[in-house]
Amino acid sequence: MTTDDQYTDGPTGPGADQGAAAAAPASASLSYPCQACGATVEFAPGSGALRCPYCGQEQAVAEVPRQVREHSWDELAALPAKPRGTAPAGVRTYVCPGCAAHTETDDLSARCQFCATALIAEPDATERVAPEAVVPFGLDRNNAREALRKWTSSRWFAPSSLKKVSEAETFKGSYLPHWTYDAGTVSHYRGQRGQYYYVTETYTTEENGQTVTKTRQVRRTRWFAASGTVSRDFDDVLVAGTSHVAEKQLDKLTPWPLEEAKPFQPEYLAGFQTVRYDVEPEDGLVTAKERMADVITRDCKSDIGGDEQRVHSVDTQYSGLTFKLMLLPVWFLTYLYAGKSWQVMVNARTAEVIGERPYSKGKIAAAVVAALIVIAVIVLLVVRK
Question: 288 by DSSP, 3-state: which?
Answer without folding.
Answer: helix
